[in-house]
Amino acid sequence: MITSIITSIKNVLRWIPIIWRDRNWDHTFLYIILQFKLSNMEKYLRKYGSSINAEKDADRIKTCVNLLKRLMNDEYHDKVFKKHDEKWGKPEFNWIELKDQPKYKELKIKRLNVITEKDKEQEEKEYDNLIKIGNYSKQQDIDYLFETIRKYHQGWWD
User: Fold this and answer.
1) For 87-121, what is each residue's pLDDT tens digit?
2) What pTM value is reported for the model?
């Protein structure tokens, strides 16, 4: 009984910083909570797991924790745009006020090495393709994360 109370108090204290910073407007906050929970489960299974699958389950959970870290870092586009930025120049972002709609602004992106109209068309084509590649990579991680949870989570106990 006393051990259960102490464990509960430790859990509450461990969760306070996570809950304190939680907000309801963004999927990243869901990822933070999920990562924290899974990370605790992984550590527990490695230390106290007595089932025959404890180590394998801990490894699967660790994979999910790593996927969540990647999703929260959200560097999918940074990686695919590195060579693009080297080729065309780093983007300059300018917000232009719309004359016919003063409350709104239009984003104009300028790159130093985009000089001609042909350059502009080529850069935009490459840009659109790289956006698709970055989105695809991110979706792959999301699918793998939730497929792993769907497939194995009911066995993550000890």
Assistant:
1) 999 999 999 999 888 889 999 999 999 999 999 99
2) 0.84
d(CA 52, CA 57): 9
Own/partner long-range contacts of 113-119 (Cβ < 8 Å, ≥24 apart): 113/87, 113/88, 113/89, 114/88, 114/89, 119/88
What does the block give as tokens for 10?
Answer: 């430790």
pLDDT in tens, 44-94: 999 999 999 999 999 999 999 999 999 999 999 998 899 999 999 999 999
The helix-helix angle for 27-48 and 2-20 (nearest 10°) equals: 150
Domain extents in the chain: 27-155
User: Which amino acid belongs to residue 23?
Assistant: R
